[in-house]
Amino acid sequence: MEKIIAPLLTVAEFSGLTPLQLGEIARHAQKLKFLRGDIITQAGSAGDGAFVIASGPAERLKEASEETDEVLAPGTLIGEMAMLIEHDYRSTVVARDWVFCLKITRAAMHAQMQEDPSLAEYFQRRVTERMLKLSDELRQIDSLLAAQGA
User: Fold this and answer.
1) CA of 73: how far to CAs of 11, 19, 66, 101, in Å?
2) Is 74 a member of any domain?
3) 58, 97, 130, 131: most buried by Cβ count inside 10 Å?
4) What is the b/e burial string over 82-101, where b = at least 16 CB atoms within 10 angstroms of the residue's CB?
5) What is the DSSP string of 83-109?
6) Could you read off the pLDDT of 73-82 as tens digits, one per residue?
């Protein structure tokens, strides 16, 4: 079980969870293997959970606005929002070699949140923090644009 919990310990989004909560997430996670070239997530497809890369290299394929693909190392969380709400994957991620992932499905996470309301509160705080940060960044952009137009 320690080998399955270890990748979760490196994910910043889970850093405030207790060992018991991490253990439960790991216990309910699907254990998936991908071969070189297998698609882990497809941009635009409906997501039903998040993936934590436990071992092996994966690659986030570049979008039109990006110059290069992004290599994803073990400990990377892919599709975080899909484990909490209905959400389409934003990017295509492909296994570069043999990749082992933990898939945390939304159904399993919701069931765990019902069993442990503090888990729901934890993720609510995390999402709120992200939204506040985004709001601040948008205000800064708005101020810069207003200053340029003046």
Assistant:
1) 11, 23, 19, 11
2) yes
3) 58
4) bbbeebebebbbbbbeebbb
5) GTS-EE--S-EEESS-EEEEEEEHHHH
6) 999 999 999 9
Domain extent for 101: 2-119
Residue type, 65: S
Question: By three-state DSSP, how is residue 3 classified?
Answer: helix
CA dist., res. 9 & res. 16, Å (int)? 10
3-state SS assignment for residue 30: strand
- Using a cut of 0.90, tell me whether the model's pTM lies above it: no
CA dihedral 123→129→132→134, nearest 10 degrees, is -90
The tally of domains found in the chain comes to 1
Q: Which CATH number do you get for residue 94?
A: 2.60.120.10
Q: Which residue has the tokens 């405030």?
A: 16
- Residue 24 domain-assigned (yes or no): yes
Q: Is residue 113 part of a domain?
A: yes
Two tokens, residue 12: 């910043």
Tokens at 147, concatenated: 């200053």
Q: Which residues of the chain have pLDDT under 50?
A: none
Question: In whole angstroms, what is the distance from residue 138 CA to residue 142 CA?
Answer: 6
